[in-house]
Specification:
single chain; 143 residues; mainly alpha; Ferritin; 79% helix; 0% strand; globular
Length: 143
């Protein structure tokens, strides 16, 4: 049971961190095509987080799914601001998003490969990883 809770918490933290990063970066994107790719990624993260919130009580009725902390949000914002200070190109923004997305893929695969999870949690984790892998392929076009 604890592995399921930990997996759901990790997925939700990753999804909320992705939404935070996109929120901080979306206004820096000029290309409408690129903006729609990033907006879809935001909506996918949002859907995964919503799904986790809907089932979380089955695994942990005492708490809510973990989200990113205020400190983490500030660090994400600061990192985005510093890394786009001199270069706000689609290529630079795609690079930043790819770095974060790849971290999510790595953590998701690590959990899938090394934890005993209920089928429902495994399914959400697989969708999370697959969504990010598909997004990586789209982001590569903007490098």
């Amino acid at each position: 049971m604890k592995e399921n809770i930990n997996a759901l918490d990790e997925i939700n933290k990753g999804a909320t961190m992705g939404m935070d990063a996109i929120h901080f970066i979306i206004d820096k994107i000029d290309s409408s095509d690129f903006k729609s790719v990033v907006d879809k990624q935001y909506k996918d993260y949002e859907a995964i987080s919503k799904h986790i919130n809907e089932i979380y009580d089955k695994y942990n009725s005492e708490d809510e799914p973990h989200k990113t902390s205020v400190v983490n949000k500030v660090m994400t914002w600061y990192g985005v601001e510093m890394k786009t200070l001199t270069d706000k190109s689609d290529s630079k923004i795609a690079e930043l998003l790819l770095q974060g997305t790849n971290m999510g893929i790595i953590e998701g695969r690590r959990i899938l490969n090394n934890k005993e999870l209920d089928d429902e949690v495994k399914d959400i984790m697989s969708k999370y990883v697959t969504m990010q892998e598909e997004c990586v392929e789209k982001l590569k076009d903007y490098l």
